[in-house]
């Protein structure tokens, strides 16, 4: 579990004190990976996520007076990142043809006839592993943004549910429910007995 | 399912999730592991979750943080860092310095871009472009082919000349086709077919197998899927917003070139 920058930033400072740009840069760097993962989960695009977090950092710098030193820096930055990501995704042309209706997604069962796109060899990973990674990403793409963000922040950064809740502005219990439910959905979708290989592709 | 069975099943699921999430105490976790060791189904669930977690870790390797967010902010001309009185220099000097920095940054960017283009070039002067970028450019340009073949023979001959193998579409799938273009993609000699499936633009890149450069898979957020197929010395990549390949299976390599049918402008 990583430390929360907001808690270690300044224990002695008064609540009305404003972060200096240098202090901001330090905390921004410390939070960067979690902010990037949040943006990547919201946008489903790792490169765009980098842009969004960078933009959010610049926006935050312009508004440093709005952040109270000693409060939760990660939560404050997450709010800006989410807003930036939301604006980006609104501008982006969506070409997906698969259903993204959150109501149907949560109840969606395995699509046994679905053919999974193959992974072309871009890494040194064994073919079956890259294929599995593709399937995981495909299944992940069917989760709701918030559920995906909860799952990734918990799984990859082992954040507490309090931290995840603060980042996404949701209750801790909701964050936990998203994580457990998402894991179960991914397992159901990726269970070997129900996934069929694409026979048309070599 | 009887209520008691349902309740047991839900309890088992909750216990599994708590275990996978590291929420059980050491004693509880040890007990759960003991139970799982005798329950192949449970064991499989745990192993699958571990595989999924490992896959996520592979797919979401975080980039390094920008070296200096303050400098980036300055480049945006925001100047939030210090009040003007703290610069110790006049505003004109600061602007000049910023201008020099911008020119320097632009020069470096051009040099880097030039170097990358040089490195990406092969002997034919071919420069690698991401298939997704080619797709976007083609769609933005109206998804217009360079030409539409007059007949099957012309279609097959195009591939014969460029890829060393004739290629044809099954008769019942020819209405998918929009036409042909040279959009590169795999190599400088790639022939690209433009198709429409359920109204969606689809590209099929065809090249000889020995020129296969294994193009990058489109990014997750592009909304595009890439499918690959080998066919008698040819390699075909279908790039599509659809979840499954719809064009690839319609190709075949004819034993001989079909006869020309002059005047038949509707067929490919």
What characteristics describe this protein?
heterodimer; A: 202 residues; mainly alpha; 0% strand; elongated; disordered N terminus; disordered C terminus; B: 268 residues; alpha+beta; 5-stranded antiparallel beta sheet; two-stranded antiparallel sheet; 7 helices
Write the layout of secondary structure elements.
The complex is a heterodimer of chains A (202) and B (268).
Chain A: H1 5-9, H2 21-43, H3 46-62, H4 73-91, H5 102-107, H6 127-140, H7 145-157, H8 161-168, H9 172-190
Helix pairs in contact in A: 2-3, 2-4, 2-7, 3-4, 4-8, 6-9, 7-8, 7-9, 8-9
Chain B: H1 3-20, H2 26-37, H3 40-59, H4 69-75, H5 91-120, H6 131-140, H7 152-163, E1 168-169, E2 177-181, E3 191-197, E4 200-208, E5 225-231, E6 234-240, E7 251-252
Antiparallel strand pairs in B: 1-7, 2-3, 3-4, 4-6, 5-6
Low-confidence stretches of chain A: 1-15, 93-123, 194-202
How much β-strand is present in the residues of chain B? 5-15%
Q: Secondary-structure element order of chain B, as H and E?
A: HHHHHHHEEEEEEE
Distance between the termini of chain A: 43 Å
Number of helices of chain A: 9
User: Which parts of chain B are unreliable, with pLDDT below 50 for 5 consecutive residues or more?
Assistant: 78-97, 117-125, 263-268
Anisotropy-based shape of chain A: elongated
Approximate shape of chain B: elongated
Largest interface: which pair? Answer: A-B, 65 and 57 residues
Question: So what's the oligomer here?
Answer: heterodimer
